[in-house]
Amino acid sequence: MAKSSSLNVRVVEGRALPAKDVSGSSDPYCIVKVDDEVVARTATVWRSLSPFWGEEYTIHLPLDFHHLAFYVLDEDTVGHDDIIGKISLSREAIAADPRGIDSWINLSRVDPDAEVQGEICLDVQMLEDARGRCLRCHVLQARDLAPRDITGTSDPFARVFWGSQSLETSVLQQNAPSGWFRLLPFPRAEEDSGGTLGALRLKVRLLEDRILPSRYYQPLTELLMESVLGPAEEDAASPLAVLEELTLGDCRQDLATKLVKLFLGQGQAGPLLDYLTRREVTRTTDPNTLFRSNSLASKAMEQFMKLVGMPYLHEVLKPVINRVFEEKKYMELDPCKMDLGRTRRISFKGAPSEEHVRDASLGLLTGYLGPIVEAIVGSVGRCPLAMRLAFKQLHQCVEEHFPQAEHEDVKYLAISGFLFLRFFAPAILTPKLFDLRDQHADPQTSRSLLLLAKAVQSIGNLGQQLGQGKELWMAPLHPFLLQSISRVRHFLDQLVDVDEEEEAGGPARALVAPSVIVREGYLLKRKEEPASLATRFAFKKRYFWLSGETLSYSKSPEWQMRSSVPVSHIRAVERVDEGAFQLPHVMQVVTQDAAGALHTTYLQCKNVNELNQWLSALRKASAPNPDKLAACHPGAFRSSRWTCCLQAERSAAGCSRTHSAVTLGDWSDPLDPDAEIQMVYRRLLLGRDQLRMKFQEDPNTDSSPEADAEKSSGATEGACPDALARPREAAARLLEVLADLDRAHEEFQQREQQKAALGPLGH
Length: 763
Fold this sequence. Notes:
single chain; alpha+beta; Immunoglobulin-like; 5 domains; seven-stranded antiparallel beta sheet; five-stranded antiparallel beta sheet; 25 strands; 37% helix; globular; RasGAP-activating-like protein 1 isoform X4; GTPase activator activity; Rho_GTPase_activation_prot; Ras_GTPase; repeat
């Protein structure tokens, strides 16, 4: 039985932060750490003491993680960033409530002496002789300690306390096997800032579960696959119908993602989406409200597009998004938001009028919107076949349910509502969340992206709301938008003009083919030990591509000659201490050649977010590799010694644990059908009692797994004469499958407990 562990983290907002700048404000951002590993950094919110971030992360974790920490800092353009405060949450505190944490939490002060990290290796024995009993403690080794010197290292020693006495060791440099213990700060009263440092609103949920072998999930998987083939309108007791009724709020998005991944792995994503959309269309009487809520159907289609269509989205939007970020043009149509003084300083002579600013902005906006529309309407052949087939099914379903002439546009709006309003427009508004950019936009660029997203949203609405509402200042764009709408209708007709026979059959092995590029961009590259080169000249700028098969690079994207490393050769991907090269944001990729020799390549990223994304992508790509390293050196071998542990042998064993299990969840994660069906099973358990009460005659009887099985088998004998015959039979089958899974979990848990009781011999 395998175990999985992940954290869903949402850094929502801050309030009442202290001013750190002379202007009386701050430029806050937040760093997220799991134990001592930085896993994420939010955007900087400029000039705000009540910042809103709204950033969400899924962090895949090792099973033995201990705490989660949030550090709020004030970004300074000169010098080091100021630390405002931190929040530390233990694993136990997060796991105490299955629903997780969703609250405001006060920031506490950061005490450098309490910022303890690392582990110590001890050999502790209780000895007994003629003089009595004594305790022998042999202090052997330490690892992963925090650097305390300007060189990026430390000169550590250990002090052993017993009773009122203490004894110090010499500097710890030994390397011997024994038991490892996590270092903790000295016990002290927890300092409460009383809110003087402000507070963060956080949402944190720990997801941990035991995953059974695949064969135990097969009956539930078959039930799920069968349920999408039946009449969706009448279904009330299939697993999908139960899940739809049970799941609300934020949980609906998690469930939609798991279901889409599960059905993708079985090659049945199309039938799943058709089943869910048919149920919603049947229940909808007003076509203007179709798919406007966050129903399971809407969330499933939204997650499906993200999982299947991200490479397509990047191909369509990335060129224009990059232009917007790089050109940093000032654009504004709303008179209430125009900064006439700023536009004069940037691009005008004399005092500009609102009309001048509006005309210039209109030209710039259409200059970006034109290529966006061209890229979209010309992308029919590049849209994934699975998406086109899903849209065709949706088109047919809506057309059958709303055949009236006055509802002619509904079949178009159903598709454009997903493709434009839930895919293209959100990606334009927040490119970082769709992996189109490594950083969030600055305030000026954010405003430009908002205007572009509003325009694309209006096109997706087929102009139905133009001239209505409060944003009449968008009127100068209306001629361009109206001109684009007829082209979008033609594009949607072409998009659904696809033969269903073209779809490749069989289960999908992965969301992303091994040859597809999952990450690319410029990095600075350095080999292990360049001969007599200063550090700043040793790093060379290269353009990198990562797929599931290779990590390749060349001098530029257009360069024909590429060097590459098979992903299967990667043995570790880790951070490098800043003191190793006196450079920030450096990582190392350790590979093994055919002769078994290890080689290290050092790569420097532009910022901590880019570093985290490359670390995560490389770790996930190399996850199936055998013989991964359990330890490595976080420093570099320079001047005949390791900068981290000062050992003089290049081949010395690594002094720090590797972190291959720490990754960020994203659209390119591999399919994991057992973990996905386990989550579905847990959700169905929540509705078991409701299912009994609704479809079985005696809901107050024994609710044990054994009783479920007996009741279920009895309910299926013979044909029920009433109208509930079919749903009762479906409910009975589902309850029986859940009871079988209950028993399997209990058996495996008992085995684990028996092994633990026997100790090492039991394994």
